[in-house]
Design goal:
Length: 252
């Protein structure tokens, strides 16, 4: 886990000699706290990762919905044409029955013209029905392809979500372990010093204890330290703080 703000973590097994015990303890505590900050940041990102994964399915779902609606509309058109054709077939049967019953030649011929007109319309509707059924077949294929694409995407998303869940479990377990390590370390620090340290951790981007850099500069704010502070840090016999940012300093 990389520490926050790009600062190098302190190796708790190789702290500089001549360092105050309280500073040494704070450096070890800060190492745990910075790990906790990094873990918290990673955990906070997981809901966003889940949202991004689920968003990948939105386009495929929209394609499925569009294809489904188009297929439904095409099927409704087929049913309407079928209904219109059946209505005309019923009319043809009725007209032919009227022809059979009539005794007037003029009326018989008029009914015959109506029958011919309806038969022509039935032919046109049957042709239209065949064309619409071809469209239905096309829309069915489009829907099948869209559903297949969605299924494929869903598989990828399921893998992503499982990976996110696994990562969450690992991060949570690590966070709990570090918290257990931190508790006795914090308890060993004197109360007022711990309170000061924790205020700095909150206000100084997770870096309360900083090294003094070459040239007598603070490793936190990068400002040059006054001579007396440099001497105090180098001596390592009393606590030294940066007069600019207030961070606790050590001769790293």
């Amino acid at each position: 886990m990389s520490p926050a703000n790009g600062a190098c973590p302190v190796s708790t097994g190789r702290l500089p000699m001549g360092m105050l015990d309280e500073v040494r303890s704070l450096l070890i505590l800060q190492d745990r706290d910075r790990r906790l900050l990094a873990l918290a940041k990673d955990l906070d990102k997981l809901p966003q990762d889940e949202a991004r994964a689920n968003a990948k399915l939105a386009a495929d779902q929209a394609a499925v919905t569009k294809a489904h609606d188009a297929l439904r509309d095409a099927e409704l058109k087929v049913k309407k044409v079928e209904l219109d054709a059946n209505t005309r077939r019923t009319s043809i049967l009725r007209l032919k029955n009227q022809q059979f019953e009539t005794r007037k030649n003029e009326e018989f011929q008029a009914l015959g013209h109506e029958v011919t007109r309806y038969e022509k319309e039935v032919d046109e509707l049957e042709t239209q029905e065949l064309e619409l059924m071809e469209e239905v077949d096309k829309f069915r294929k489009v829907l099948a392809d869209a559903e297949s694409a969605k299924k494929h995407t869903q598989g990828l998303i399921d893998e992503d979500l499982k990976s996110i869940r696994d990562r969450k479990e690992r991060l949570t377990a690590t966070r709990d372990e570090v918290r257990e390590e931190r508790a006795p370390l914090a308890a060993a620090v004197e109360g007022s010093l711990l309170a000061y340290y924790e205020r700095l951790m909150k206000t100084k981007d997770g870096l309360a204890v900083a090294p003094m850099l070459d040239g007598g500069r603070c490793g936190g704010c990068q400002m040059k330290l006054i001579a007396s502070t440099v001497v105090k840090v180098q001596a390592g016999t009393e606590r030294a703080t940066c007069e600019n940012c207030g961070r606790i300093l050590h001769n790293g």
